[in-house]
Amino acid sequence: MVDREGVPAVTRSFEDDEPGPVYEEPRSSLELWDWRRSVADLYSVVRSLPPEEGWRRWRAERDRLFAAHPQSPIPPGERSSFGGLAYFDYDAGLRALAEVGPPGVVGPVGLPHSGEGITRARPMGTAHFEIGGHPAALPVFRLLAYGDGFFVPFRDLTNGHDTYGGGRYVIDTVKGADLGGTDGIIVLDFNFSYHPSCVHDPSWSCPLAPKDSNLAFEVRAGEKLGPR
Fold first, then answer.
1. pTM value?
2. Cα dist. 134→129, 137, 218 in Å?
3. How many structural domains compose the chain?
């Protein structure tokens, strides 16, 4: 595999978030910095708006970033024809306030990847909630590398047809994807769930939701596969 300038490229890892070959520095790192700032600023705005209005703003801004930002996970040669990400319709019933209790597993775990490697994490708690009439629980991970962030991936019964088989993410605080919460309660709004970067470019190696992060029903909200 070679990058867009003909220099051999390495598989891009979620854990170290390598911005590009050394010859691109410092430009590539400043671009990554701007991407993270842009995403964090977007979620800050989202938290200040009514949920559905925030979701529409989130969709529009993600499309803009994916189409034009140098750190977009859309390969450079495909950005000019990028027509926007596909989503399920907004569903207010798929937003929940989750109470975080003790973790189900003690000690570090290795989150599997779409490609090479693992991401080491420690379950810091279990989020208990109800959506669409279904009681459910998901582990909340604290990443042991990659910025010491908090991370909630999940799988559901849409995986493998309407959504990516490896699952989606709903919280990733290192990237600024944080919908809020306080006093042991976190917001899990599955309308804001999204695919890992490897769905858009297989040169990324991204962590996948482990078996304990599986929901036994369909979550028809958030980003999906297919054209807009």
1. 0.87
2. 8, 10, 10
3. 2
